[in-house]
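Hi again,

Forgot to attach this to my earlier email, sorry! This is the prediction with nicotinamide-adenine-dinucleotide bound. I've pasted everything inline since the attachment limit keeps bouncing my files.
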Amino acid sequence: MPKLTLGLVGLGNIGTFLAQGIIDYNLPYKLTFANDIDEQRAAAFCERFPALDVQLVDLDTLAARSKVIVEAAQMSVVPVIARKALLAAQQVEATKYLFVMSVGGLLRLDEEFHRELADSYLKIIAPSGAIGGLDALSAMTLAKMDHVRLTTRKPPKALGRNDKELTEIYRGPPAPAFEQFPKNVNVSITLGLSTVGLDKLEFVLVSDPGLAQNVHEIEASGSAGEVHIVLRNVPSPGNPRTSYLAALSVISALRRFSQNLLVGY
Ligand SMILES: NC(=O)c1ccc[n+]([C@@H]2O[C@H](COP(=O)([O-])OP(=O)(O)OC[C@H]3O[C@@H](n4cnc5c(N)ncnc54)[C@H](O)[C@@H]3O)[C@@H](O)[C@H]2O)c1
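Structure tokens for the complex follow:
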């Protein structure tokens, strides 16, 4: 496959990890364009990967000149880069792909954008991030689904709390929790959007002083059977707030996206 031009927004933990992954796994992408609001981070990124010959550009240029765009910045960037990517794809009448890591930002795409997206050359893809099993769960939702529950357990510190005992701090659909715990709902949004929808997903957030790492438990049942998945995530070396699995998931998504033979899709 010829190398696809890639533009990366956000040169922090996931962005840096992705750049290293493109090199280590020899992925068929040319990381040519990059953007970060933090100039020091951007400069450090370019210094770290001199062989990539990355050009730091504004978001308009990045959207116009990249075939594949990866957002690994923060939620507020998602509607901005999505709009620019959509316009750029329409202008050249050729498909562009936007991979979104800050999935909470997908909730900020308004109805008008969704209408335009449905009839556009832009494809938005959210990697599985810090969880998995979404292939089976999304297949199950084609039949009758009784319930899907996500229980996320985190050390109190990761939630900005000081609990001395196990404390349930939220139970309900993820959208209201989104306002309260914006940094802790990516996973619930990914699970909700890829299965029964955000309104029907039951999200439970627990502060657990006995934990050193984040644990996500998915329970689902329906007419196709039952699923029970537990993910005990190791923090990523560069940013303890981000799971190692989440950083790996974008590399894996891009690798699978480039393959001509896809198994387990
Ligand atoms: N989908 C998932 O399961 C999952 C898991 C972990 C993290 N995430 C999300 O992925 C994103 C990146 O995570 P990370 O660990 O790399 O974070 P990070 O803080 O290490 O890096 C983010 C980078 O984006 C840059 N940035 C922030 N705002 C920007 C803007 N407006 N324009 C350009 N650059 C900007 C920052 O300067 C920083 O360099 C976060 O939004 C995080 O919540 C998603």
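The first strand starts at residue 4 and ends at 9. The radius of gyration is 19 Å.

That should be everything now.

G.
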